[in-house]
Amino acid sequence: MRKTMTTVVTGAATLALAASALAATGHGHAHAASPLDDGKQLLPQAKITVQQAITAARSAASGGLNEVDLERASGRLLFNVDVGEKDVKVAAADGTVVSVDQDD
């Protein structure tokens, strides 16, 4: 029993170290600390990163960053970034700001 417990603890510690190493080197999941709220399953289809979408949205509106979603609208894949009191839609294909509306 003691040998089994030691093996389990050692295995868990090894996994924790490996996860830390991946996070530190940036070779883990690219969006692990992403502010993306909804639409994570669509992320592999986006040509830009969440951070690039946020940067584009902040160029079109000012204020604090609230929610970031990735969604299909009118046949396009769009990041919906809430910046301040604005709802900024950014094309996931190229980072173009598609619209800036009052946040509801």
Mean pLDDT: 78
Largest sheet: 5 strands, mixed
N- to C-terminal distance: 59 Å
Shape: globular
Estimate what percentage of residues fall within beta strands. Answer: 25-35%
| Succession of helices and strands | HEHEEEE
Q: From the alpha-carbon coordinates, what is the Rg to the nearest angstrom?
A: 19 Å
Query: How many domains make up the 3D coordinates?
Result: 2
Helix content estimate = 25-40%
Characteristics:
Nuclear Transport Factor 2, Chain: A, five-stranded mixed sheet, 104 residues, globular, single chain
What is this structure's SSE topology?
Blueprint: H1 2-25, E1 36-38, H2 50-60, E2 65-73, E3 76-83, E4 86-91, E5 97-102
Parallel strand pairs: 1-2
Antiparallel strand pairs: 2-3, 3-4, 4-5
Task: Explain the overall architecture.
With 104 residues, the chain is of the alpha+beta class. Helices cover 34% and strands 31% of the residues. It contains two helices and five strands. It starts with a helix and ends with a strand.
Give a quick summary of the entry.
The chain has 104 residues and is of the alpha+beta class. The chain has helices at residues 2-25, 50-60; strands at 36-38, 65-73, 76-83, 86-91, 97-102.
